[in-house]
Amino acid sequence: MNDPITVHVKSEDDDLGYHTLALNENENWSFCENLWKTTFFYASFNWNGSRTASFGVFDKPTIPHCQKWRFGKSRLCFWIVKDTGFYVAPHLTPFPNGWTKMHDWSWWT
Q1: Residue 51: what pLDDT?
Q2: Sheet harboring 106-107: ordered strands across?
Q3: Helix (H) / strand (E) containing 18
Q4: CA–CA gap between residue 20 and residue 4 (Å, rounded)
Q5: pLDDT value at residue 70
Q6: Which residues pair with 89 in a beta bridge?
Q7: Which residues contact 23 (CB under 8 A, 6 or more apart)?
């Protein structure tokens, strides 16, 4: 998995644009969760034109795998992209300890 991955992250209110990430590069952003805890960020991924994926990167299924909410503190979610799929964790730890697989790649031929 040495080819770059194109990532597009957006919410209902914010479009963070397209970013192309090389091996070991990262993308990060911050935002304020709304009071109703319905904040939703969505991402699409394209790897070498042969694999794609689209899913919520901050949504109800993901939040339990992120750091717990604390007043006045940012909630962190860490994602790692592997050729085997997409994994999330509440802390940046060596893979695979503490990482939960959330999504697979879709293959295009």
Answers
A1: 94
A2: 15-21, 5-11, 41-47, 51-58, 106-107
A3: strand 15-21
A4: 6
A5: 80
A6: 78
A7: 1, 2, 4
Q: How many CB atoms lie within 10 A of CB 99?
A: 20
**What is the average pLDDT score of the chain?**
90
> How is 19-88 classified by DSSP, letter by letter?
EEE-TT-------PPPTTS---EEEEEEETTTEEEEEEEESTTTGGGSPPP-TTS----EEEEETTEEEE
Residues 6+ apart with CB under 8 A from 46: 5, 6, 52
Structure-derived torsion over alpha carbons of residues 85, 56, 99, 26, reported in degrees to the nearest 10 = 80
The residue assigned the tokens 């697989």 is 101
pTM, two decimals, is 0.87
For residue 75, the tally of other CB atoms under 10 A from its CB is 16
Size of the chain, expressed as the number of residues it contains: 109
What letter represents residue 103's amino acid?
H
Tens digits of per-residue pLDDT, 54-68?
999 999 999 899 988
